[in-house]
Protein: IclR family transcriptional regulator
Amino acid sequence: MPRTPSPDTSAKRRQRVQSAETGMTILKALARLGGAASLTAIAAEADESAAKVHRYLSSLASEGLVAQHPATQHYHLGPEAVRIGLAALRQCDPVRMGESALLRLRESLQVTCFIAVLGNRGPTVMRMEEPSLPVTVNIRPGSVLPLLWSASGQAFVAFADDAELRAQAEAEYAGATAEQRSVMGGPDPVGTLCQQVRTQGCAIVRDTLLAGISAIAAPVRDARGHVVAVLTALGASNGFDTRPGGKVCPALMHEAGLISAAMGYVPPAAG
Amino acid sequence: MPRTPSPDTSAKRRQRVQSAETGMTILKALARLGGAASLTAIAAEADESAAKVHRYLSSLASEGLVAQHPATQHYHLGPEAVRIGLAALRQCDPVRMGESALLRLRESLQVTCFIAVLGNRGPTVMRMEEPSLPVTVNIRPGSVLPLLWSASGQAFVAFADDAELRAQAEAEYAGATAEQRSVMGGPDPVGTLCQQVRTQGCAIVRDTLLAGISAIAAPVRDARGHVVAVLTALGASNGFDTRPGGKVCPALMHEAGLISAAMGYVPPAAG
Structure:
């Protein structure tokens, strides 16, 4: 088949890149199938011909990314896939991965925002961005926040689903002032709060931690679904939109979702 | 550059496969560098030109296998690498991966051999192969073995380096008969045994669990270095070579090493 020289060169270049991409597509297809499958199943999942997939699997096998079971001839992810995955997990840092989300939130909403992880003393602010005219708050990187009176803490307690953390929250409630307790209620105040936060998809507080300050926090999950950080935005209560469908909540939840996706999190299919 | 048609076609085919392999090589190089590195560092590690590596990294990025940090421009393993790694870890089953090792040991040494994992009751035989003229033992898949009087148990205690397992071994020693205890000695019998087993690289028992039966066991490690199984060979004491440098020990340790490598284990560099 004769071709003009120029498109041929361009096609060749694209193909070389494309072959690497096809290899990755097949690797991802095998992972989606649980890490072990027949050639037929992988070809169907990758939407490619069995002959083509077979050739790529040979390449992947020669690099240790896949291996073939001697008895069943099924393919499974190989030792190099494990090593790559462990390296990827080790460098999965929600704080680093949240940096651009903080910059986007600061720019688009002109709010103070931070990312917090659960340290040994509680929710701990790791990285913070403030707009050019920030609201004055005594929260800084390194600040440890309460579990029940901060949006960040509430997000950890509600979404982490961790019995020990829940017990710490109950202890915090038991030691709270009557005024603090007044914002919560019912026979199971911590349980009710958690339920409400989960229904909203984010934690929303007004004036509970700092007078005149409102905050919203959404969970960041890793590839295993564990809550590894929370993304929080805050502002002066008189100008900060705390409505669940308002300006801040959906944007914050969207950015938290982007960080989670970068960590490898796949949300469960909507039921 | 004119080429003859036939080698060109052949070269093209090879190149398509080769491009997929190059993509994997670069992905593995990034993993070896800890999962995050500069273009220069990745090119050096993969022993390819920066221009070529850059093109491949773009392909890997388009498939989500790598991502680029917006500030530093460094590359890091992306969310798809995490997902592939988790899938690979999930299907990493030492019992399945040990099947061919059992067949090879049975054929080459004509010994009974099995792979055991640490179940909730102790070392548990999962899969077993016997030669055509097997020695009669009352060990079957599902059998739970003692920690101190079986080679499998000793291998778990010595190599797993787990405080709880060590405590269970101490309890087993405390409850042992005088005859059982007589094969161990010194002020710290369990510690001395562990040290000896680690020095040998495998556990060797003669007649301690079953009269007239000797056994040798070597550890199988996963990608994190954890002992996830042991590979054990056994035979009648009068015909079974229990010398550390004999027929069985090196072969068994070699096969256990092959299973570990398939699990993603990388042995520490010799010091």
In short: Chain A has ten helices and eight strands. The longest strand of chain A covers residues 227-236. Confidence is low (pLDDT under 50) at residues 1-8 of chain A.
